[in-house]
Amino acid sequence: MTQTTDSTGIVIMGGSGRMGRMLIDVITASDSAHIIGVTEAPGHPWAGRDLGEALGGAASGVPVTDQALDVVAKAQAVIDFTTPTATLAMSKVTAQTGAVHVVGTTGMTADDIAALDRAAQETTIVRAGNMSLGVNLLTQIVRQVAAALDDDYDIEVVETHHRHKVDAPSGTALMLGEAAAAGRGVDLDTVADRARDGITGARTRGSIGFHALRGGDVVGDHDVIFAADGERITLRHQASDRSVFARGALKAALWGQGKGPGAFDMLDVLGLR
């Protein structure tokens, strides 16, 4: 990594996880950013160690800590693909320090998002269920197609992820469902159908169905199906490399510099809103 005087200092939350390790690789290779530190939960085997040594190599001078405030105070941004509880705790720290908080955490409730919005009154928060350029372009297309087609076209969202994913539907599936609902001018919570089992009766006209598949090492596949009598339209995104999410998150962290307080998403970052 070539570190310049205007390089953005970034803290990675949960560096030992899949996304954390990918973020380490992407940021280390960047000419625009460098890693200030990594945070882990108290008691984690990496806590208190040097990042390079924790990764099995030479010392890097980058600390791994369970004391978030100390390291975030020295950074310009935090990238966070962790859990709702950890994300909300970090939002209090970023609100205090003014660091840009990039949130890729999924499985958040409406109350969790409301808490993030309150923190965004103090700092820049960029939150998205998916950080990839392709998915965010897809959400725009889904919204346009949903707006063009009436309820004669049933909408189904199908997502596939690796066996270790703990939340369903995925954050990306919900993004796509929100886009479809927005295109039709309805509230997703009132039309979503997330569970079908047994004798369910006929499909409710105007509903948006969700289906979650889990298995193997699938990074993320998402289909939005518009099905009518006589034809189907399928819009698809397939991610084969987790680095697309890490690169998007880094782009968001750099974009957020100097923006001031506010709640944003990847459509803002990509200029698609």
From TrEMBL:
Pfam families: DapB_C, DapB_N. CDD domains: DHDPR_N. It is found in: Cytoplasm. The keyword Endoplasmic reticulum does not apply. Pathway: Amino-acid biosynthesis; L-lysine biosynthesis via DAP pathway; (S)-tetrahydrodipicolinate from L-aspartate: step 4/4. It catalyses: (S)-2,3,4,5-tetrahydrodipicolinate + NAD(+) + H2O = (2S,4S)-4-hydroxy-2,3,4,5-tetrahydrodipicolinate + NADH + H(+); (S)-2,3,4,5-tetrahydrodipicolinate + NADP(+) + H2O = (2S,4S)-4-hydroxy-2,3,4,5-tetrahydrodipicolinate + NADPH + H(+). Residues 10-131 form the Dihydrodipicolinate reductase N-terminal domain. Its EC number is 1.17.1.8. InterPro entries: DapB_C, DapB_N, DapB_N_CS, DHDPR_bac, NAD(P)-bd_dom_sf. Residues 134-270 form the Dihydrodipicolinate reductase C-terminal domain. The active site is at H161, K165. Its main location: cytoplasm. NAD(+) binds at G14, G15, S16, G17, R18, M19, E40, G104, T105, T106, A128, G129, N130, M131. PROSITE patterns: DAPB. It is an enzyme of class 1 (oxidoreductase). Keywords: Amino-acid biosynthesis, Cytoplasm, Diaminopimelate biosynthesis, Lysine biosynthesis, NAD, NADP, Oxidoreductase. SUPFAM superfamilies: Glyceraldehyde-3-phosphate dehydrogenase-like, C-terminal domain, NAD(P)-binding Rossmann-fold domains. The keyword Iron-sulfur does not apply. (S)-2,3,4,5-tetrahydrodipicolinate binds at H162, G171, T172. NCBIfam families: dapB. Homotetramer. Belongs to the DapB family. Catalyzes the conversion of 4-hydroxy-tetrahydrodipicolinate (HTPA) to tetrahydrodipicolinate. This is 4-hydroxy-tetrahydrodipicolinate reductase. The lineage of its organism: Bacteria, Pseudomonadati, Pseudomonadota, Alphaproteobacteria, Rhodobacterales.
